[in-house]
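Project outcomes to date are best conveyed with an example. Our students and postdoctoral researchers have been running inverse folding experiments weekly, and each run begins with a structure described purely in tokens. The record below, which covers 925 residues, was selected by the lab manager from last quarter's runs and is presented without edits.
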């Protein structure tokens, strides 16, 4: 991956838009990023990392801090990076989340983070997560790996150098594929803990069921159960003890059931005697109550008879009320008749009002329709000429259409003439070219033919042989034979030239014929055109040029179309008028018929209204007559009097009925009491005496013994049920516990092994063991540079022995001092030595990540600060190591204030602060 161009807008200390053309730095070597403190040197690294991954280069900064405090409120914050990878160019653009002025109204609004990536094939990827994922796919590294490989951020030099095993585990876990081992460790550890808890739960469950076993303190087995409850007996022995206890309780339960059966028989006999004695005692008590009740009923019967006689004396008053009520009820229907007459009068009055209203509406409708009919007749008279006008316009339309068709035919003939002229011109051009080629071929043949004839002597001389006669002179000697000219053609060449001439002549002849045909076709088309114009456009001359003819045809077509449009518009109006005429021809007779019907309805309504008025006067007379004949003016008053009479009559009749009912009830109660006294007297006389006290004492004794046995049996049942359940659960839980303990034993051993917690062993977990392999390779790569930078003095080495027995180990690191042969902690190095070791370790880590990531190639590396702690010699050695790193096609960028680096490195990115706020960038090459 190589950055080519970086653009920042309102980002960090850069107030406006800043362009950094990184491609000007070339493809290899070192370059320095220098400038004022706080001007924004590290921000360049942050911008590159943010553009790629949406995060800064260091862990102590956050994307929310990227909005420039120097920027104008309306200047947007964004970063755009153009980079190349694998010969392809990519453009990524991001903007962080920040507050910006609202576009509408006052105040600010939150600008959401955005991202977009332009791929070489033209595709566009949007949304922050999708862009980050695509970057990881392209480069092959996530942000953590990129930061360790390509960008050693400020303050991160010593983090890996001085880290302990646990810290290095976290770092390596992000950089190398070891998280799966950690997940496996945690899973095995979690399963071991879960199995341990399950075993403890199973043991507790067994203990809970043993504790729940019921055994009375007086039982001979109780001492053994005390040992079982205390956990002193093995589970199997406890199970056998519980089975013996259950068998003993079942035998006791059987004995209780037999004794209870005997008690029940004796108790039933005693209960029968007690029942008879209680029935006699109850009968005597009931006899006394019946005798007292007979006396009371006799007194009540005498009082009821007196009340009945008093009510019977009011019979004449009842008859008078009944007669008065009958007379009133006989007159009530006349009130109903009066109410009906009044209702009829009201209905008749309402009907007359409605008829009058309807009659008025119909008369108004009649006048409206008469006016409407008169208007329709006038409109119909004005449409009489519409039919003739339509026929005239149809004729005009036909003539206009025929003229348009003739003009269209003229236009088609004109187009044909133009095409014929184009064909003629093309044929003439081709004929001219063919004729020139034929003339050139003729001249070539004539020249070569003459040359061939001129060289006949030389051609014959080529066939002469010494001693053979000359075909011209017959001589056998040929001292001076004729010589061929250098350019003389052969007979074969002459024949080819002749054939080319003949072919060219044939082509010219063919195109001459085609030109003649084209001219004839043009003349024929022009003749038809001008002949047709005489009939269609007689005002135009027949010999006009075709352009003028075309103009005349277009003008005539325009006028013809206007005339046709005008006629069509008039036809639409006439058609509308004819449709209206047909509508009126239908509407007028219908209106006349409706007016006749309406006139008849109005006459009938007038007759009905007169009859209704007569009926109303008749009803008024009947009501007046009936009102004079009735006692009360209103039916409601008569009904109120009826209700009062009924109330009095009902009260008297109800009092008489109640008196009769009470007399009957008193007679019935007296008869029942006398019968009860008779029956109870007979029952007492026939019963035998029983010793009630003795039988009750025996019953109580039997009941007490039965309750004692029932309680004992209930206790036995509770113990049997509880202990049987406990036995079943103990047996089941014991089998489950055996299986759990077997699995827990080997899972715990596996967990202790992979998590590095085996007693007496080194505290090295499985993930740490795998990471040790990566760490050893990193140290080998780091030592190649550290030995160079320190002149062979220092070499990094992984510590083989743990620093203590309590914490995790395996990733601690020491330094070997080859000058004195000692091995000590890396924390004992000085500041400059620590920087050298950190830089070497970071470069070794970068090499190892690229190697383990499948050959990923990063053509750019950045180092931020740390060189100020080196002396001149160490600085030169560090520069030499970085220079070796920059061999090939790799650029290494260094951020530093060290003045010696400004003199040693020619390529520089200079960052300066502006007095007005913000920073600016200049590239020096």
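After processing, the design step wrote out the following sequence:
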């Amino acid at each position: 991956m190589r950055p080519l161009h970086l653009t920042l807008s309102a980002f960090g200390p850069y107030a406006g838009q800043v362009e950094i053309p990184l491609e000007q730095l070339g493809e290899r070597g070192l370059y320095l990023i220098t400038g004022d403190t706080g001007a924004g040197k590290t921000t360049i690294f942050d911008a590159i990392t943010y553009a790629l991954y949406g995060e800064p280069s260091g862990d102590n900064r956050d994307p929310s801090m990227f909005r420039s405090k120097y920027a104008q409120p309306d200047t947007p914050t964004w970063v755009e990076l153009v980079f190349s990878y694998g010969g392809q160019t990519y453009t990524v653009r991001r903007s962080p989340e920040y507050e910006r002025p609202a576009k509408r109204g006052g105040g600010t609004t939150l600008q959401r983070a955005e991202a977009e990536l332009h791929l070489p094939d033209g595709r566009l990827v949007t949304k922050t997560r999708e862009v980050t994922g695509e970057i990881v796919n392209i480069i092959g590294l996530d942000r953590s790996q990129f930061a360790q490989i390509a960008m050693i951020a400020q303050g991160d030099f010593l983090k890996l150098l001085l880290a302990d095993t646990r810290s290095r585990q976290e770092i390596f876990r992000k950089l190398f594929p070891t998280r799966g081992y950690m997940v496996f460790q945690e899973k095995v550890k979690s399963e071991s803990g879960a199995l341990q808890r399950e075993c403890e739960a199973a043991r507790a469950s067994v203990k809970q069921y043993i504790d729940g076993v019921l055994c009375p303190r007086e039982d001979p087995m109780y001492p053994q159960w005390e040992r079982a409850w205390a956990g002193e007996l093995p589970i199997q022995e406890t199970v056998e003890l519980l089975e013996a206890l259950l068998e003993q309780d079942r035998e006791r339960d059987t004995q209780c059931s037999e004794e209870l059966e005997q008690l029940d028989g004796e108790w039933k006999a005693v209960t029968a005697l007690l029942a008879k004695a209680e029935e006699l005692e109850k009968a005597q008590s009931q006899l006394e109550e019946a005798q007292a009740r007979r006396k009371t009923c006799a007194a009540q019967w005498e009082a009821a008879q007196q009340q009945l006689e008093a009510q019977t004396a009011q019979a004449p008053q009842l008859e008078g009320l009944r007669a008065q009520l009958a007379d009133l009820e006989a007159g009530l229907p006349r009130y109903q008749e009066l109410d009906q007459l009044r209702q009829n009068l009201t209905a008749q009055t309402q009907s007359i009002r409605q008829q009058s209203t309807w009659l008025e509406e119909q008369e108004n409708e009649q006048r409206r329709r008469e006016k409407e009919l008169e208007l329709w007749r006038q409109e119909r008279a004005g449409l009489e000429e519409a039919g003739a006008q339509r026929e005239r316009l149809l004729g005009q339309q036909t003539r206009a259409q025929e003229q348009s068709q003739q003009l269209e035919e003229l236009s088609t003939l004109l187009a044909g003439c133009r095409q014929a002229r184009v064909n003629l011109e093309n044929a003439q051009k081709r004929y001219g070219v063919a004729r020139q080629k034929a003339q050139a071929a003729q001249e070539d043949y004539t020249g070569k033919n003459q040359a061939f004839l001129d060289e006949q002597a030389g051609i014959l001389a080529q066939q002469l042989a010494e001693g053979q006669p000359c075909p011209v002179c017959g001589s056998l000697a040929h001292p001076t034979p004729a010589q061929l000219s250098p350019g003389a053609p052969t007979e074969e060449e002459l024949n080819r030239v002749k054939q080319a001439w003949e072919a060219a002549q044939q082509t010219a002849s063919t195109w001459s014929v085609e030109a003649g045909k084209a001219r004839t076709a043009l003349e024929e088309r022009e003749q038809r055109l001008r002949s047709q114009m005489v009939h269609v456009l007689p005002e135009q001359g027949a010999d006009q040029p075709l352009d003028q003819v075309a103009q005349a045809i277009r003008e005539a077509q325009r006028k013809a179309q206007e005339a046709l449009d005008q006629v069509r518009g008039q036809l639409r109006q006439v058609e509308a008028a004819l449709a209206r005429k047909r509508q009126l021809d239908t509407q007028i007779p219908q209106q006349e018929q409706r007016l006749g019907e309406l006139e008849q309805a109005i006459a009938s309504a007038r007759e009905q209204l007169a009859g209704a008025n007569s009926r109303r006067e008749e009803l008024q007379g009947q009501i007046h007559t009936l009102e004079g004949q009735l006692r009360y003016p209103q039916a409601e008053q008569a009904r109120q009097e009826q209700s009062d009479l009924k109330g009095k009559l009902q009260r008297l009749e109800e009092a008489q009925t109640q008196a009769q009912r009470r007399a009957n009830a008193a007679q019935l109660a007296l008869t029942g009491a006398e019968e009860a006294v008779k029956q109870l007297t007979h029952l007492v006389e026939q019963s035998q005496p029983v010793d009630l006290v003795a039988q009750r004492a025996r019953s109580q004794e039997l009941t007490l013994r039965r309750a004692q046995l029932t309680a004992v049996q209930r206790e036995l049942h509770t113990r049997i049920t509880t202990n049987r359940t406990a036995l079943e659960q103990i047996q089941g839980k014991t089998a489950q516990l055996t299986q759990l303990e077997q699995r827990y034993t080997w899972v715990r051993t596996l967990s202790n092994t992979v998590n590095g917690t085996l007693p007496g062993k080194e505290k090295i977990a499985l993930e740490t063991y795998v990471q040790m392999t990566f760490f050893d390779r990193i140290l080998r790569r780091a030592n190649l540079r550290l030995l160079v930078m320190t002149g062979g003095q220092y070499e990094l080495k992984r510590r083989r022995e743990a620093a203590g027995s309590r914490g995790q180990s395996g990733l601690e690191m020491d330094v070997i001092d080859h000058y004195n042969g000692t091995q000590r902690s890396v924390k004992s190095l000085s500041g400059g030595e620590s920087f050298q070791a950190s830089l070497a370790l970071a470069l070794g880590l970068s090499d190892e990540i690229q190697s383990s990531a499948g050959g990923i190639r990063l053509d750019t590396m950045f180092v931020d600060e740390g060189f100020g702690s080196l002396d001149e010699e160490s600085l030169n050695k560090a520069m030499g190591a970085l220079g070796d790193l920059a061999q090939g096609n790799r650029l290494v960028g260094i951020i530093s204030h060290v003045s010696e680096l400004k003199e040693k490195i020619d390529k520089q990115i200079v960052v300066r602060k502006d007095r007005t706020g913000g920073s600016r960038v200049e590239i020096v090459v």
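The chain has a mean pLDDT of 81. The longest strand covers residues 2-11. The training component of this project remains on track.
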